[in-house]
Write a structure and sequence with these properties.
By secondary structure, the protein is α+β, with helices and mostly antiparallel strands. The protein is built from three helices and 13 strands. The longest helix is centred in the C-terminal third of the chain and has 26 residues.
């Protein structure tokens, strides 16, 4: 019988690896160039920074390389970030020096649909903007990514299957196209954080699971 534990993460718990900024990258939905003015040059970069899990599509979940678990993004994980809203930047390769847009300036727009977290950034008339647009046009840039901080997640222990981690809520920092969009063994992947961080996150979950199981046994007794 599986067991699910949901936790809310305090944003100032510096000893918790979930307070480290993390990244996910996907090639499931490639970035595009859009022309909003008829006859004009492309003026908008659009894409999906994150995709929700689709049954039968392993590219929409992340398989942890260090233990038997997979991670998915919950369909309401971005609701708070978009409603507050967070002042999110559009960056190329998560580099603050390669700025493409910003929500507070109205040059970056974020939305959620059945596919995932969509972004639209007005292409700036800068060297970065022109270079990124040309690389997308040529097909050199084929993926997108987002940087975030987990504030709530759940862990489900499943009999005979990998454990399931679902991200429920995040603080959102940046989105945008990336050069290296995927972990080689999967069409989504490459989290931020060291192996030690991941091992610590696993240990913390195992402690919570053990405590919950003990509590359930006490209640049954």
């Amino acid at each position: 019988m599986g067991l699910t534990v949901t936790t809310a993460t305090g944003r100032n718990l510096l000893d918790d690896p979930r307070t480290h900024i993390q990244r996910r990258r996907t090639t499931c939905e490639m970035p595009n160039l859009e022309t909003r003015d008829e006859g004009g040059a492309p003026s908008v970069i659009s894409g999906y920074a994150a995709v929700f899990y689709r049954d039968g599509d392993p590219g929409t979940e992340y398989a942890f390389p260090f233990w038997n678990a997979v991670e998915r993004i919950g369909r309401h994980a971005f609701d708070r970030a978009l409603s507050e809203p967070h002042d999110v930047r559009a960056l190329f390769n998560h580099n603050e020096n390669f700025l493409l847009g910003r929500t507070s300036a109205g040059t970056l727009r974020l939305s959620v649909d059945d596919i995932g977290l969509k972004y639209e950034a007005d292409i700036p008339d800068t060297q970065t903007g022109r270079d990124v647009a040309e690389s997308i046009r040529r097909g050199d840039l084929t993926g997108s990514s987002f940087a975030f901080l987990i504030t709530s997640e759940s862990w489900e222990s499943r009999d005979g299957e990998p454990d399931l981690v679902t991200i429920r809520d995040v603080d959102l920092f940046d989105v945008g196209p990336v050069t290296f969009p995927a972990y080689e063994s999967s069409t989504t992947g490459l989290r931020g954080g060291s192996c030690d961080d991941i091992a610590e996150r696993k240990r913390a979950f195992e402690e919570r699971l053990a405590a919950r199981k003990k509590r359930l046994e006490q209640l049954k007794g």
